[in-house]
Amino acid sequence: QVQLVESGGGLVQAGGSLRLSCAASLRTPMAWFRQAPGKEREFVAFVTWGGTGTLYGDSVKGRFTISRDRAKNTISLMMNSLKPEDTAIYYCASKKDLLLSMNREDYEYWGQGTQVTVSL
Asked: Fewer CB atoms near the end CB (10 Å): N or C, the chain?
């Protein structure tokens, strides 16, 4: 059974930083998505299985960094210069194939989500 377990969410002031982590049981490409109240789930960042290929959503480019520890099979999302509009539930996701995708429908497995709240 595939398991994805996120950790690291919390409350932070605007301009601050948080680091999210996700432990996975599959060795495939992975991504972070987020969903704010009343909004659709939004692509945040993608990383290849090798960890050398990454892709970011426009709203987080230059502020967030996704990385992968292949030995531990975990991914992390370092979030800097956080803004109130970054407030959302953040989900870790993985997919069966090796193709790059920003489309949530292409991901078969999801974690339970972790809340990130950025205050003014």
From this structure: N
